[in-house]
Write a structure and sequence with these properties.
Layout lengths: L3 E10 L2 E9 L11 H13 L3 E11 L2 E13 L2 H4 L5 H21 L4 H18 L7 H14 L4 H8 L6 E4 L4 E7 L2 E7 L14 H8 L6 E7 L5 H12 L2 H8 L3 H14 L3
Antiparallel strand pairs: 1-2, 2-3, 3-4, 5-6, 6-7, 7-8
C-alpha cells in the first residue's frame, strides 16, 4: 500500500468529504518518459528538497467510509498545496465524486436484504434521535454506535446514514430544469431549481451545462430554494398542489407508493417556486 506523505482537507462537495493526499511514488523518476536532461534536473531538485516526487490522490468519503478515489502519478511540486494550482485537481475531484456516487448506487441496490433490514431496525432509533436533534454525536461516535448493526449486515448501512447526514446528498429530480431535492427528515424536504427566469446556463465559458451547474451549485444566487415541511399543509392544500399533476392525493399515493411524501413536497415546491 502507498504511504501517505501529506494530506490536505478540501472543501466538501455534493455531500462528500474530500481529501487531497500525496502518496509515495514507487515509480522511479528515470522511468518517466522524459528527456534525459529533464530527468537529471528533476532528480537534483528532488534530492535537494526543492521538489517532492509523489502520486496525487483525491478521496471522496462519507461517514468515514471511502467511496471514491482518483490518482495521478509522477507528480513533481514544491508541496501538496502547490499541486492545488496545477490544473489537475478539479478533474480529479470530479472523477472521485463520480465513483463515489456509483459506489453509493451499487450499495443502495443491496438495501433490501433481510440481514440488512434486521440491522437497520436496530439503528433506526439512533438515526431518528440524531435527525431530530435528540442526540448529539460526532461522526466518529455515530459510526462506533452503529458498528454492531454494520457487522450484522454490510456497508449498505451507508444508504441510511446518507439520508440523515447533515450534508444530505442532493438527488436530481428533473434534469431538464436542473431541479434537485433531498430529505432532511421524514416529512421535511428541501428543493432547489436553477433560476432560469433571472439567469441563463453559461456554455460560453464552460464545456457543458452540467459543468456550469456544478460550478454554481452552492451559490444560492442562482437558485430558487425552499424547505417543505408537510405538517404545514392541511389535506385541502395538499390536494390543491398535487391535483394538477396526479389528479388527487389518493391517486398520487397509488402511483408513487412509499415515496409519496417526497413527491407531494416536490409538487408543492414547483407550485410555489414561481418557475412554473
Amino acid at each position: 500500500m502507498n504511504d501517505v506523505l501529506e494530506t490536505i482537507e478540501l472543501e466538501s462537495q455534493k455531500g462528500f468529504k474530500l481529501e487531497l493526499k500525496a502518496l509515495v511514488e514507487h515509480l522511479p523518476i528515470n522511468d518517466n518518459l522524459m528527456e534525459k536532461s529533464l530527468v537529471e534536473d528533476l532528480i537534483k531538485q528532488v534530492d535537494s528538497g526543492e521538489l517532492i516526487h509523489f502520486c496525487a490522490c483525491v478521496v471522496a468519503s462519507k461517514g468515514g467510509i471511502e467511496l471514491g478515489t482518483e490518482y495521478l502519478g509522477a507528480c513533481f511540486e514544491k508541496d501538496l498545496e502547490s499541486f492545488k494550482e496545477s490544473g489537475y485537481l478539479e478533474q480529479m475531484i470530479e472523477a472521485a465524486i463520480k465513483e463515489a456516487k456509483e459506489t453509493t448506487s451499487i450499495i443502495a441496490d443491496d438495501a433490501n436484504t433481510p440481514k440488512l433490514l434486521e440491522a437497520l431496525k436496530e439503528a433506526k432509533t439512533i438515526i431518528y434521535n440524531l435527525t431530530n436533534g435528540l442526540e448529539k454525536r460526532s461522526p466518529i461516535e455515530v459510526m462506533a454506535v452503529l458498528d454492531k448493526a454494520i457487522n450484522k449486515a454490510n456497508p449498505s448501512i451507508i444508504v441510511e446514514l446518507i439520508k440523515v447526514d447533515n450534508e444530505n446528498t442532493w438527488t436530481c429530480t428533473d434534469p431538464d430544469n436542473h431541479q434537485y431535492g433531498r430529505m432532511i427528515r421524514e416529512g421535511v424536504y428541501e428543493f432547489k431549481e436553477f433560476d432560469r427566469q433571472n439567469y441563463s446556463i453559461n456554455t460560453d465559458d464552460y464545456s457543458s451545462a452540467e459543468q456550469f451547474i456544478e460550478t454554481v451549485f452552492d451559490n444560492s444566487e442562482f437558485w430558487k430554494e425552499m424547505q417543505i415541511s408537510l405538517v404545514d399543509y392541511n389535506e385541502v392544500e395538499i390536494e390543491d398542489n398535487v391535483s394538477g399533476y396526479y389528479g388527487s392525493l389518493d391517486n398520487l399515493k397509488k402511483i408513487c407508493g412509499v415515496e409519496w411524501m417526497w413527491i407531494v413536497a416536490e409538487c408543492i415546491f414547483e407550485q410555489k417556486s414561481g418557475l412554473y
